[in-house]
Amino acid sequence: MKKILAIFMLMILFMLLGCGITNDKTTSVGESAYQVVDIRGTVVAMPAKPKRIVTLSASTDEIILGMLPTENVVAINALLDDPVSSSIVKKAQKIRNKIKNPSLEQIISLQPDLVIVPHWGNAEIVDGLRDVGLNVVVCKGPQSVEDVRETTMLLAKAIGEESKGIQLIAKMDEKLKEIKNKVDKIPTEKRKTIILISLMPSYGGIGCIFDDMCNYAGVVNGVSAAGIKNGQIVGKELLVKINPDILILPVYNDHGTFDVEAFRKEFLDDPALQTLTAIKEKRLYMPREGYIYNCSQDVVYGIQEIAFAAYGNDFSQPADCHISISGE
Q1: What are the pLDDT digits (tens) for 144-173?
Q2: Domains of the chain (ranges, CATH numbers)
């Protein structure tokens, strides 16, 4: 009887192991097709490849749409159908729902089977979505080109398409190599100093992706070179002291509702800034903001846009460039 009881207990144990063991950071192995671990260490068990995806940033929208057709995305950032701020307007126009800072209720109403949230997003949103049973993957909000690679691979794993992430990164690296070959030919003494004038007054210093983009573009980010970290505001006195060769000016107009021309005029007419070389020589560049403010695989076109602002036609490129293997 003791032997029979022992065998019976072993059978029960094997059955339990076969069904999978759950904990507070994952769902049952037996209930998932695959798993992905987000940047917070949460194991997200996906029952199948998602078909109704919502992401809470423009850059993650662009990464997903670089791998999947628009039919897999149920909502998109509200700025991505604006030709001033986006390089994927045609794709964005195919997606009916436009979101900016959606509430928990709005996200739930979209009935997504996967929600992707950059780490700078609202933590309460993440917890709330998980509380109602939705699959949520938290990713990095990229602060460097390397972060873009990492986020691309995490999102590729989240949608069950790891090979597509590898392909997307390969295309990024191919473009970066092309840019580097041109940048390497520019002598150090001819490298230009650039400052980004942003509607976000504390953006552009050490620790942001624009600073990393400048390194790839072969220019000196004047704000970073002055030791200013991202999040710190550059005052007029420091701007005069840096004296950049080129100013990149804002173009954003929020679908025509913001008077960016008035903002630029007020800045450029400021008496305190008239000694700036960039203003005196009218070396002012209005970029394609869909490239400059980009944290997706298309950051490579932002790098080329910065190089074009500094060095001209060797770095010219068309509008609406987008790295995609989605077939759409």
Answers
A1: 999 999 999 999 999 999 999 999 999 999
A2: 15-170 (3.40.50.1980), 184-315 (3.40.50.1980)
User: pTM of the entire structure?
Assistant: 0.89
Residue (of 309, 321, 319, 318) closest to 221 by Cα position: 309
- pLDDT (tens digit, 9 = 90+) per residue, 27-76? 333 457 999 999 999 999 999 999 999 999 999 999 999 999 999 999 99
Segment 269-298 shows an average pLDDT of 96
Long-range contacts of 106-112 (CB under 8 A, 24+ apart): 107/54, 107/134, 108/132, 108/134, 110/52, 110/54, 110/74, 110/75, 111/52, 111/74, 112/50, 112/52, 112/53, 112/54, 112/74
Q: Rounded distance, CA 90 to CA 96, Å?
A: 12
